[in-house]
């Protein structure tokens, strides 16, 4: 949500907000139990009298009234008409103020309407003079703005919000930067639960504030006064809009078939597979089992067209083919060709499930025969791999079905319990995940993957001490468990124990000096200390160790923009954007890259068409979201970006760039 509230807005994000006053209306001595109090400022329409009254042609430069410039002798009649008009407006204005003090809001509104009608009549009667006399036109325009704004206030007080909004629109047509009209419009839109439109008004007020303070922002100086709207208001409005946006994104995701959903990057998949205790065993089996070519040749040699009526032969043929596809898929996974691996696992699963004969009367019998012919172990491994493939494509329901069936056949397989818990975690079912971890550890108290993944759950639940205990236990049992050491370093950083994090990373580096993750975590440690150059250096080492790891690209980009520069000099945003685009290139699902890149591109957009490209970027990011948290993050950024673009249009701004 910090996309809108940049350094200037954040500087005063917690400052108390003092409400603005409406133009040309006196402070009421009586207290109005409902609505907002209207406080006076000097304006174009002021009451007469000896105590501070003014003429109606006030200068906007010093907010005090000045008489119109003396007209040349040839225009004396015109000048007399002007004076008569102003006198009449003053009389009407005083009447309106008296009615306002008596809380006769609609009657006050009628008086302002009378004054506006006089101006309109004058303009209509002398269109030519009005066009030729620039000063007269400017003066009348200011009068119209002030009177219309005051009438809008009266309509709001009298509980006629639509009339008040109409007058706000009229004011903003003449003066898009009119703060009071926008503030009132925001207030009314909020009361009508028109949250999207209200957010646009918030953004317009913030953009004007930022634009007014742009010179100070360039110099790194604090802006003048607090922002017009607190950050909490932005967050509140976004929270109202979010559910609809998330539902829209989820509907779009659901419309895509599971099989067509993209897989995470190879790096992400490998890191996940490494976190399970059975990783080394299946990798060894895949390495020794044979090459892709061997399994392909065997598949080609299989008989085709075995009749279904010969159930035993048909089941044996299907089971043999499914087993070969399982072995070839596992070999593809060993070679990190996960796209082909998933295709083989899906095809094998379809054979075992007899999906081609699902409408046949003997479907259940044939399926049972295929499973029997395949053998329990191969069938369970196929279910396990299919569960993983479905999980990777965020088909949580399908993944659970595969894992649960596997658990029925292998009830003491703790790794399957851990994988089921992982699916529950991604579905935000933390209590059910916790129960599965407890069951796994009851079967095997030394299960490293159960300890490691439960530590992640504890962090999500903000149970940091318990997470630390699980990781300590894992490291005590398995001192060379690199992932446990890296995650314990994260826990130390969360506790602001930077020395503890440093020691843990040093130990991790002893076990794997070429680990991209070790350098990345070390960079984060430097970043936390404010050592941005050292952090960037470590992130670059992480990239060298593994170019497919997206995390160091994002972190290096953040280090670039946070590195202090000479007074007035801008960070190297071009380099930061290059790094973020590289992160998305290596892993299109790395949602943090979309968030950071969108913010950066929006702040650097030279025109609103460039700003609209950021919306397209977020739309792309939404296609790859996997968790509710990721959806909320990108939806929030998209909501704010659209509102800012609409606000810039309303203010007649051509860019959001404040530099």
Jot down its keywords.
0% strand, disordered N terminus, 659 residues, 31 helices, mainly alpha, elongated
What is the CA-based Rg, rounded?
Answer: 34 Å
| Overall pLDDT level | 85
- So what's the overall shape? elongated
Low-confidence stretches: 1-74
Report the β-strand fraction as a percent range.
under 5%
Number of helices: 31
Number of E strands: 0
How far apart are the termini? Answer: 21 Å
**Secondary structural class:** mainly alpha
Q: Let me know the largest β-sheet.
A: none
**What share of residues is helical?**
55-70%
Q: Can you walk through the features of this model?
A:
By secondary structure, this protein is mainly alpha-helical. Helix content is 69%, strand content 0%. The protein is built from 31 helices and no strands. The N terminus is likely disordered.
At a glance:
With 659 residues, the chain is an all-alpha fold. It contains 31 helices and no strands.
Present the secondary structure layout.
Blueprint: H1 7-11, H2 76-101, H3 105-125, H4 127-132, H5 134-157, H6 161-174, H7 179-191, H8 195-212, H9 214-218, H10 231-254, H11 266-274, H12 279-289, H13 292-301, H14 311-334, H15 338-352, H16 363-374, H17 376-392, H18 396-409, H19 414-426, H20 430-443, H21 448-460, H22 464-477, H23 482-494, H24 498-511, H25 516-529, H26 532-545, H27 551-562, H28 573-586, H29 591-604, H30 608-623, H31 628-650
Helix pairs in contact: 2-3, 3-5, 5-6, 5-7, 6-7, 7-8, 8-10, 8-31, 10-31, 12-14, 13-14, 14-15, 14-16, 15-17, 17-18, 18-19, 19-20, 19-21, 20-21, 21-22, 22-23, 23-24, 23-25, 24-25, 25-26, 25-27, 26-27, 27-28, 28-29, 29-30, 29-31, 30-31
